[in-house]
Amino acid sequence: MNATSQLIFREATPEDYSRVDELVENAYTQAYGDLDVSWDKERTAVARAAYPQHIWVAQRPTGEIIATLSGRIFGERSVVDEDVQTPDHLMDLRLLAVDPSAQGEGVAARMMAHAETVARQTGFKGLLLETLKEWPGPQALYRKLGWREIATIEPPADNPEVPTLLVFTHEWE
C-alpha cells in the first residue's frame, strides 16, 4: 500500500488554517512565482470559512496535512468570482494546493475525487473551476480527469493586468 492510498480526507478545522494557508502559498509560489493576490478577498482559510465554504485537507496517517481544496457549500453563493455567477447545480472549486514534496503522487487527483464525492452526496450535478490560461499544469490534470473547458474569460478592457481565465466543468446526470 502506498502513502497516497492511506490519505485521510476531511474538513479543515480552525487549527488547520495556518497550514492550509501555508500550503496554498508554497504550492502556488513554487509553481507560478510571486503572484499579486491582493485582489483575492477569500485567499486565507479564515476568510473562506467565513464565506462559508468547504475547506478540505488531505492528511497522511502521521497527521501531516499535504493538500487542500475549497468548494461551495450546497445552497451558498458562488466561491469563484463575484462577476461570474456559477449555476446553482454546480459546486465551484478553488485553491487546489498540494505540498511540493507530495506532488506527483496522485494527491491532486484524489482531492478532486473527494470534492466530486461530496458534491454528489450534497445534491450538486457537477463541478466548476477557473484557472489561469498561463497555467498548463492544472489544465492538463483537469483534462486527464475528464473535465471540459467551457469558456475563456478575457481581462476587462480597462484593466489588462487581470489575467485571462479558462473555465472548466465536470458534470453528471
Can you walk me through this structure?
This protein has 173 residues and is α+β, with helices and mostly antiparallel strands. Helix content is 27%, strand content 28%. The protein has 4 helices and 7 strands. It has a 7-stranded mixed β-sheet. The longest helix is centred in the first third of the chain and has 16 residues, at 17-32. The chain is globular and about 50 Å long. The N and C termini lie far apart (33 Å). 28% of the residues are buried. The mean pLDDT is 86.
What attributes does this structure have?
alpha+beta, 173 residues, single chain, 28% strand
Structural topology:
Elements: E1 8-11, H1 17-32, H2 45-50, E2 53-59, E3 65-72, E4 90-98, H3 107-121, E5 126-132, H4 136-144, E6 148-153, E7 165-171
Parallel strand pairs: 4-5
Antiparallel strand pairs: 1-2, 2-3, 3-4, 5-7, 6-7
Mean pLDDT: 86
Distance between the termini: 33 Å
Radius of gyration: 15 Å
Structural class assignment: alpha+beta
Helix content: 25-40%
Main β-sheet: number of strands, strand sense, barrel status? Answer: 7 strands, mixed
Give me the side-by-side strand order of the main sheet: 1-2-3-4-5-7-6
N-to-C order of helices and strands? EHHEEEHEHEE
Uncertain stretches of 5 or more adjacent residues? none
Number of helices: 4
**Secondary structure tally: strands:** 7
Overall shape = globular
Please indicate the percent range of residues in DSSP E strands (runs of 2 or more).
25-35%
